[in-house]
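Deliverable D5.2: sample structural annotation.
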Amino acid sequence: MRLMRVKQQYLDLIRNGQKTLEVRVGYPNIRTIQPGERIKLASRTETIVIRVKDIRKYPTLDGMLNDEDSNRIVPGLTKAQVSRRLKKIYPRHLEKLGVFVLEIQAEPQN
């Protein structure tokens, strides 16, 4: 099972079912993710397992934000705020790798 790092604030939102979309750029390890795959998400202090329900690819962050619900990416922020946050994480040279949206669901914890 592959491992992806995520900040604690986002891990909490994923675990609680509020954040159901995870945005990444097209690094080689992201390009191979398939629907149905289970992935470990780890912060500095904990790990949870999620299941990928669907994966969608976009050429740009703006194009992705036109189609996807920004509140499912970062709950509580406006679309403009989500755009600024994503563009800070993924500047243009990384955005050119392609934008991947993972529709995810946290698995129940034992």
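Annotation notes: The mean pLDDT is 96. The chain is about 30% helix and 30% strand.
The annotation will be released with the project's public dataset once the embargo ends.
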